[in-house]
Design goal:
Elements: E1 9-14, E2 19-25, E3 28-33, E4 37-42, E5 48-53, E6 60-63, E7 69-74, E8 77-82, E9 88-92, E10 100-102, E11 108-112, E12 115-119, E13 125-128, E14 138-142, E15 147-152, E16 155-160, E17 168-171, E18 176-181, E19 187-192, E20 197-201, E21 207-210, E22 220-222, E23 228-231, E24 237-241, E25 253-255, E26 261-266, E27 273-278, E28 283-287, E29 296-297, E30 301-303, E31 310-315, E32 320-325, E33 329-334
Parallel strand pairs: 25-29
Antiparallel strand pairs: 1-33, 2-3, 3-4, 4-5, 6-7, 7-8, 8-9, 10-11, 11-12, 12-13, 14-15, 15-16, 16-17, 18-19, 19-20, 20-21, 22-23, 23-24, 24-25, 26-27, 27-28, 28-30, 31-32, 32-33
Length: 341
């Protein structure tokens, strides 16, 4: 049994609205609340840099790669905040928007009902996809922002820039809850309502399903190398090896700490370090790629202790981990160098 080790606390802040999503880029941390408030904070000190509002509530938030903009999405649309002057552009479409993904510092894709819209930083529409079979649940960019993967019931569809119809379709009968694309572009993975992970190899369309999870798989994340995929869906975090020919015929590593996993975030830099959060309020840090397949790993560090569930995690660079709890607390932790974790 590992002992709880409290890493140095950089700062703690509180927000009035229960956090539902967190994003970190460069020197900023953005947090979205369930009632629609979005706060942008200085990552080093916690001071408020800016704020915006989605009148019908918020579901996600994402900072642009240059930390110059933030987008928040919610039940009726999205809002884009601009750092240079604090301006917020609200786009009320009336359509459910549960996902957003930046292609680069100038373009962001947002889910909008059964479509994905690609917007500029002022909220202007650049192009849109044709309607999917149902509401879009997640988005991911591929090929350095030249291709957009869109998940909705029954398939993941890929669109080239300014192409309404998909150029590639990866079918799977079921509800996709989460989408992860390997940075190498070799793999597309969906976490599903039917308690499975479905995988497509983009080179030839080869497919693989990892089933048997006790719960739905709603969180997936590739590390920077594209060789490791972390997933929830069980009391243990599972980590699959995608190096070589991929995970077919292999077993994952299991990370045991939480009763229920509520957040996952790989540390930048490709060192195999993962942060996870649980319903008990605990945050765990892992050497997630250590050991052999079927190994059951214990955390290197635990932080936070009991209390409100962890709502979200985000790394503001390799040495600062931001954590939001559902009771409104926001903390950042200073994390040692990769070799000292």
């Amino acid at each position: 049994m590992s002992t709880t080790v409290q890493s140095p606390l950089a700062w703690e802040a509180g927000v009035d609205d229960a956090p539902v999503a967190l994003s970190a880029r460069g020197d900023l941390v953005a947090v979205a609340g369930a009632e629609g408030s979005v706060k942008v904070l200085d990552a080093a000190m916690g001071a408020e840099i800016g704020a915006s509002e989605l009148p019908a509530g918020a579901l996600t938030v994402a900072l642009s790669p240059d930390a110059g903009h933030a987008v928040a999405t919610g039940p009726t649309g999205c809002a884009l905040w601009r750092r240079s002057d604090g301006r917020t552009a609200v786009r009320e479409s009336g359509a459910w928007s549960a996902a957003a993904a930046w292609a680069d510092a100038t373009r962001v894709a947002v889910a909008s009902g059964r479509r994905a819209l690609v917007l500029d930083t002022d909220g202007g529409e650049l192009w849109r996809t044709e309607p999917a079979a149902s509401t879009v649940t997640d988005l991911a960019w591929m090929r350095q922002g030249r291709r957009l993967a869109v998940a909705a019931y029954g398939a993941v569809r890929c669109h080239e820039r300014h192409t309404e119809k998909p150029v590639a379709t990866y079918p799977y009968v079921g509800s996709h809850l989460a989408l992860a694309v390997a940075p190498t572009g070799r793999w597309i993975c969906s976490g599903n309502q039917d308690a499975s992970i479905h995988i497509w190899r983009t080179r030839d369309g080869g497919e693989l399903t990892m089933s048997g999870y006790p719960e739905k798989v709603s969180r997936l994340a590739f590390d920077d190398t594209g060789f490791w995929l972390a997933a929830d869906g069980a009391p243990d975090v599972t980590v699959w090896d995608f190096s070589g020919k991929g995970p077919e015929g292999t077993a994952p590593r299991s990370l045991r700490c939480h009763e229920t996993v509520t957040a996952l975030a790989w540390r930048p830099g490709g060192a195999g370090h993962l942060a996870s959060g649980g319903a008990d309020g605990t945050v765990a840090l892992w050497h997630a790629t250590a050991g052999r397949p079927q190994a059951r790993l214990r955390p290197v560090r635990e932080m936070g202790g009991t209390g409100a569930p962890v709502a979200a995690l985000a790394w503001a660079g390799p040495h600062l981990l931001a954590v939001a709890w559902r009771d409104g607390r926001i903390r950042t932790y200073g994390v040692p160098s990769r070799t000292a974790l």
